[in-house]
From TrEMBL:
CDD domains: CetZ_tubulin-like
GO cellular component: cell division site; cytoplasm; microtubule
Name assigned to this protein: Tubulin-like protein CetZ
GO biological process assignments: cell division; microtubule-based process; regulation of cell shape
Gene this chain is encoded by: cetZ
Length: 394
């Protein structure tokens, strides 16, 4: 699937930057164009892979390149005001070569949280290609203001895109891990999962051809209908040093029985990875029952992939989700030393984390309002004399 990626804010820009690096390293040709937008000049300067001509600094007249300080209302206002500057970078994107737009942002800050829904609405108004979002939820330990930002941004973002894929930092941060180290690891996990998902079907001339092709239309149809999506991933290392299509024992003996045993093992590995991907740590933890649509992609060396295993995995997903729209296929990766299963669950609704986020945000909003009122009273008491005898200058 060929994407035009737009990273809004610090987290969004860093993730798009990693996607560009991943794309070059893997030769997957996913990122047809990449744009980073920010109100903080330093964040744009810290990127490594996005061309400087595609880094857009907005809000200079308002915040002088220093960011919006976690004020997502200001982030949204600036995005609206400077949309012409953003559009200038988007105009250089060869849209006729793009299957969809992907807007990526952290939902807890100010620029991305406020600006991502604004740019998504703008893109949907102008282009016919689907506009998807990838929103990153802050950890619950990051503070009330970030939770409030995330809850408000999530509510707005999901309405302005064709589908919102979500990654929850709370489910991925490790205890005792440094902030920077934690975010770097999280960004790697994001790119790994979505890289395989969007890379399926993008095979260059002379590359491996999938037995059961997953192309951009399969992804688009799975994401159709809107709502919220999550992605599961499971991986197993394999020995890919030998040649041929059978397993090691089959290659040594040439026996039909051993080859059948190896096929059975390959099938079992695939079905096991499908279960692990669906029931393990999802990008947004949720109950998979009631999922509206799903897509299974198996990636790895061709000799470790087979139609029977993928079909079994697809049927198991149908049973677990209750959905009749479960698609599946393989993504051959020449020279890979792993087999991986990626599952896209679209239209999920039983998500306790979102309800928890919203409740904490409501409490934070009430506390902020109470603190503001108390602050005004305290200031009034501090600056005015008891007998009101002093006269102000103005």
């Amino acid at each position: 699937m060929k994407l035009a990626m737009i990273g809004f804010g610090q987290a969004g820009g860093k993730i798009v930057d990693k996607f560009v690096g991943y794309d070059a390293e893997q030769g997957s040709d996913i990122v047809r164009a990449a744009v980073a937008v920010n109100t903080a000049k330093a964040d744009l300067m810290g990127l490594n892979n996005i061309p400087e001509s595609q880094r857009v600094l907005i809000g200079q007249s308002r915040v002088k390149g220093h960011g919006v300080g976690a004020d997502n209302e200001l982030g949204a206002e600036i995005a609206e005001e400077d949309m012409d500057e953003v559009q200038g970078a988007i105009d250089s994107i060869p849209v006729h070569e793009v299957d969809a737009f992907l807007v990526i942002a952290g939902l807890g800050g100010g620029t991305g949280s406020g600006g991502a829904p604004v740019i998504s609405k703008h893109l949907k108004r102008i282009y016919t290609e689907p506009v998807y979002g990838l929103g990153i939820l802050p950890g619950s330990d990051e503070g009330g203001i970030y939770t409030l930002n995330a809850a408000r941004s999530f509510q707005t973002f999901v309405r302005e895109v064709d589908n919102l894929m979500v990654f929850d930092n709370d489910a991925w941060r490790k205890t005792g891990e440094s902030v920077q180290g934690g975010y770097d690891q999280i960004n790697d996990e994001i790119v790994k999962r979505f890289g395989i998902l969007f890379g399926a079907g993008e095979v260059e001339q002379g590359g491996e051809v999938a037995e059961s092709v997953v192309d951009s239309s399969e992804i688009i149809n799975t994401l159709a209908g809107g709502g919220v999506s999550t992605v599961g991933y499971a991986r197993e290392e394999v020995d890919n040093t030998g040649g041929g299509n059978g397993g090691l024992l089959s290659r040594l003996t040439g026996g039909e029985e051993e080859e059948q045993l190896d096929t059975a093992h390959t099938t079992n590995r695939i079905t096991s990875l499908v279960r692990k991907a669906a029931l393990g740590r999802l990008t947004l933890p949720c109950e998979i029952e009631g999922t509206e649509r799903a897509l299974l992609v198996m990636a790895g060396p061709p000799k470790y992939l087979n139609r029977k295993g993928i079909e079994r995995g697809r049927k198991w997903l149908e049973e677990q989700t209750g959905s009749m729209e479960v698609r599946g296929g393989d993504y051959p990766v020449r020279g890979a030393n792993f087999v991986a299963g990626v599952i896209l669950l679209s239209g999920v609704s039983n998500v306790p984390r979102i309800k928890e986020l919203q409740q904490v945000a409501i409490e934070a909003q009430e506390n902020i309002e109470d603190i503001r009122e108390e602050s005004e009273d305290n200031l009034e008491e501090l600056v005015n004399d008891d007998d009101d005898e002093l006269e102000s200058l103005f």
